[in-house]
Amino acid sequence: MQIPPPQTKPPSEDVKTITSSHKLLVKRAAIQPLLSGRGETALELASLFPSVQHSELAKEILAQRLAPMWSNLLYSQQSKAPIKLEEALRDSQAHATANYLLQFHILTEITGLFEKEDIAHAVVKGAHIREIVYQTPSLRIAEDIDILIHLEDRRRAIDVLIDNGYSHFPNPKNLSHETSLVKKNVTIDLHWDIFRPGRSRVPISEALLSSREKYQKHWGLGTTETLYLMLVHPVFTKYSTTPNATLDRIVDLSKWLQLADIDWGRLNELCDITGTKTAAWITLSWFSLLTDNQSFSAFQERLQPGRIRKAWFKNWLIKDYSSRVQSSAILVHAGFTLPAHDKPIDVLRAMTQRLNS
């Protein structure tokens, strides 16, 4: 499948609906200046949302892990921010740079250790994405480093890290698919399954790892496989719109979708065999609602669920029900993550695995 050509058309009814919510207006004001290719400065673009106060904007920028990006953008544009925004951004880029340098040192160390022990692995999610599409990777905050390995290498990989000064902090709730290790305040999330068991129709980690390639300093997944994770993973683990699903992921997606070597046919195949077309469609819908970007609507339409489920999920996204009911795992799963599976048999499988875990 070829990459769908960019489309220029007026905002959809969905976009008009989303802008009626002040909470979502704040999100749009925080993210759109980072994505715009227009000539206006960041503050000029943010001023297009006149009901958004500077104090609200500053709070949102910090909460969404966008402060280093904003700080860098304002500096490059030689823009002076209002005092509330200036206070929020102060020192953000310096702190992000310091954290990045430490994480990059650890990542380089782990790459060497795993290569020496012949442990096939790939860095996934933010720590990988920022190295590929950000001119200054430190602007993209990553809370931890996620690494995917083969299931049979699990014990050996953990032992190698422990022998080299990493402390192991297993969480019994997640041992079906991941564990955490820490060194110098840097957390490594070691995955042998990218999803909790039952989320995918078939095991997917092996297929993902088969795409891995060596970048400048680390191993990562292929372009298409990385995009697959970007589309599906936030739905099941971050519930798409909650505070945990920070908007830096939308910036990631915008930059990644501009890559020329995405195999759209392969992406469709991955979504199809895992039963996650609906989940990928949800992320693309959230992306288009926040950014007005309709460039990939043709691929999005290939993934879309039926009319009733489509309306349900769009309403769920626009009204941010995930955040409203986040304290109740049962409500989130019943209203969002379980229906995000493609077919009833997929829902039954996920429920059965959850109950047995």
Helix-strand blueprint:
Blueprint: H1 13-18, H2 22-35, H3 42-46, H4 54-63, H5 67-76, H6 83-89, H7 92-116, E1 121-124, H8 126-133, E2 145-149, H9 154-163, E3 167-169, E4 178-183, E5 186-191, H10 205-209, E6 213-214, E7 219-220, H11 223-237, H12 248-256, H13 264-274, H14 277-291, H15 297-303, H16 307-318, H17 321-324, H18 329-337, H19 344-356
Parallel strand pairs: 2-5
Antiparallel strand pairs: 1-2, 3-4, 4-5, 6-7
Helix pairs in contact: 2-4, 4-6, 5-7, 8-12, 11-12, 11-13, 11-14, 14-15, 14-16
- Low-confidence stretches at least 5 residues in length (pLDDT < 50)? 1-20
Please summarize the sheet with the most strands. Answer: 5 strands, mixed
Which whole number gives the mean pLDDT?
A: 88
**Rg (CA only):** 20 Å
Count of DSSP-assigned helices: 19
Structural class: alpha+beta
What fraction of residues sit in β-strands?
Answer: 5-15%
What string gives the helices and strands in order?
A: HHHHHHHEHEHEEEHEEHHHHHHHHH
Give the termini separation. 38 Å
Shape: globular
Molecular structure report:
The chain is an alpha+beta fold and 357 residues long. The chain has 19 helices and seven strands. The strands form two sheets. A five-stranded mixed beta sheet has the order 1-2-5-4-3. A two-stranded antiparallel sheet has the order 6-7. The two termini are 38 Å apart. Residues 1-20 have low confidence and may be disordered.
